[in-house]
Amino acid sequence: MKHILSFLILIVVFSCQAPQEAVDTIVINANIYTVNSGFDKAEAFAIKDGKFVDVGTSKAIQEKYKSDNIIDAKGQTVVPGLIDAHCHFLGMGFNQQSVNLVGTKSFDEVVERVVEFQKEKNLDYITGRGWDQNDWNVKEFPNKAKLDSLFPNTPIALTRIDGHAILCNQAALDLGKVTVDSKIEGGDVVIENGKLSGVLIDNAENLVMNYWPKSSRQDVVNALLEAQKICFDFGLTTVDDAGLGPDAINIIDSLQQAGDLKMRIYAMVSASKENLEYYLNKGITKTDRLNVRSFKYYADGALGSRGAMLRAPYSDKPGHFGLLVTDLETFNDAAQRIANSEFQMNTHAIGDSANHAVLQTYNKVLNGKSNRRWRVEHAQVISPEDFKYYNNIIPSIQPTHATSDMYWAEDRLGAERVKGAYAYKQLLNAYGKVALGTDFPVEQVSPFLTFYAAVARQDLEQYPEGGYQMENALTREETLKGMTIWAAYSNFEENEKGSIEAGKFADFIILDTDIMTVDMHQIPNIKVVKTFVDGKEQ
């Protein structure tokens, strides 16, 4: 009788248990950083219809759910899919089809790479990107003479690593009929000894590039798909492309709708009068993979090419203040129109003068409106008295810029002014969040280099000892948030991505190393084991 009673009790217990819910995927035995509001950790989660449905312990998830696809993470680290809050996704894809000049140590090496590239490709027009005269023994802008002698009839345009200067040979200059007398607002045609050097800075690039052959639709498709593969390999599941035109955005949308492009893209519309009119009339475009609700403007150029607009002259070029790329009347008018819409305004501002002007305009037209989430892209050099103006403006920053520029930034800015440069902790304290990106292909794609630069403030040779201006280093938790939930917030997408929580897209990555506890100097070596978008491995 006693045995029968025990058996009946077991039957009652099991019959009272809820049946297991069928889901598409279960991940167990993982070291999960959820990046939720409490920055809680977990061991497992369940996925259905492309979204997380539950997060918890391996025991609890397996008791509650069943699936034909159970992934045993075997203790490996899982974090939300990473977001690059400022990059040039399409541009990086196009770079795969041009001469790679990153890491060149002299102009002679630049020329050698162009020669080898042309031997293989035999193109009618040659483009390249990545040279940086600051990495050369002779730290001066290059001259076109050698390219003219080797390529007298083939137009060549070689873009500086930051995109704010190009070197053209004479064949390329002839496309735009550029002469020593050519002028353009917001740009500079560099003259040496009364002759064209071939270097065009900021808006002057358009004197040639407006006449460059346009890319075909297939060229754009190929570039997007190549960029996607590279980004997925590094665990990026959302990218903010900082400057796209309507044609490229339409191609992206069609590829996403067809299922060929799975990368989620936050598209900043390239600033122009025509684009502003078109999208203000069209309104915001939002799908699960595409978000078009911001305009990308340029206030100034780059510090490396001395195009950043400073409040006092460059320390290494007396009398030179840099360049204002967009005139203030145009900028202020656009800002007011965007403020009257639901769109976001994201402005490239490097120099302290540019940042000051942008912050003043933003705060004036927003007139105290909170939650508009307008962004300053780069926010690179800030006057001490201007940090407070970031209390309602999101700093969108790229930590590897600090470790790339630290070798020469003080030369440009001087010992006192450089203290307000790359001041990521001060910017975080001002707003409470920072959106982190790479600006690739200006910097490398790897988000682990971003992470390392943010927390260690050193290059891969662990220079400088102790870190660069360490008072502005971020913690690991702040950095991971900046690459996930805060970046999502800067895109108005924090309710759908950026953390591992029920109801959000199942975008996550598995890492071979615990990024939150590994020795700091091992962070750049972390590898992505698998990348998932909508719960599907990419």
Key words describing this protein structure:
538 residues; alpha/beta; Diaminopimelate Epimerase, Chain A, domain 1; nine-stranded mixed beta sheet; six-stranded mixed beta sheet; 18 helices; 32% helix; 23% strand; globular
What does this structure look like?
With 538 residues, this protein is an alpha/beta fold. It has a domain of 119 residues: Diaminopimelate Epimerase, Chain A, domain 1 (Roll). Strands 10, 17, 18, 19, 20, 21, 22, 23 and 24 form a 9-stranded mixed sheet that branches. It has a 6-stranded mixed sheet with strand order 4-3-9-25-26-27, with no helix packed on it. Helix 11 links the parallel strand 20 and strand 21. Helix 8 crosses helix 9. The radius of gyration is 25 Å and the shape is globular.
Short note summarizing the structure:
The chain has 538 residues and is α/β, with parallel strands linked by helices. 32% of the residues lie in helices and 23% in strands.
CATH architecture of the domain at 91-209: Roll
What about the largest sheet?
Answer: 9 strands, mixed
CATH class of the domain at 91-209: Alpha Beta
Overall spatial form: globular
